[in-house]
């Protein structure tokens, strides 16, 4: 990954200490991080197509009209093959395939995001190789 094309991660949580700790860990791994405590602000970030969001972590319960589930739905519209990571009071299954963690630590969120990214990048490499193989066969 080059510094000019860093992946952008949107973090949404009402706990400023949790949010800052997770943001620092991700920035140390050279990610472009946008952190907010508001669902409304996060929604605007997701809708800004000039600076697209590659990955999303959100607390399920947020104050105001837009919660983490709404953000995950919006994220899913642009990234149907990627899971958002949602922190909730209890783990549950997401119909859209999002990863729901029960009150995770910053380290658990970091590990989960890293795993999802690794899976996604591996599937992209495999897909690219299959396309090249198909072109050579034709």
UniProtKB/TrEMBL annotation:
InterPro entries hit by this protein: CheY-like_superfamily, Sig_transdc_resp-reg_receiver
Coiled coil: none
Keyword DNA-binding: no
Response regulatory domain residues: 8-117
The UniProt record lists the keyword Transcription regulation: no
Superkingdom of the source species: Bacteria
Keywords annotated in UniProt: Plasmid
Protein's name in the database: Response regulator
Source organism per UniProt: Microvirga terrae
Upper taxonomic lineage: Bacteria, Pseudomonadati, Pseudomonadota, Alphaproteobacteria, Hyphomicrobiales
């Amino acid at each position: 990954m080059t510094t000019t094309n860093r992946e952008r991660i949107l973090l949404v949580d009402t706990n400023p200490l949790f949010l800052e700790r997770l943001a620092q860990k991700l920035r140390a791994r050279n990610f472009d991080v946008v952190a907010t405590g508001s669902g409304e602000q996060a929604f605007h970030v997701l809708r800004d197509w000039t600076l697209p969001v590659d990955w999303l972590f959100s607390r399920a319960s947020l104050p105001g009209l837009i919660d983490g589930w709404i953000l995950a739905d919006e994220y899913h519209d642009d990234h149907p093959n990627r899971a958002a990571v949602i922190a909730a009071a209890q783990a549950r299954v997401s119909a859209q395939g999002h990863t729901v963690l029960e009150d995770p630590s910053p380290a658990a969120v970091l590990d989960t995001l890293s795993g999802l990214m690794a899976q996604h990048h591996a599937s992209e490499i495999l897909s690219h190789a299959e396309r090249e193989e198909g072109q050579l066969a034709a």
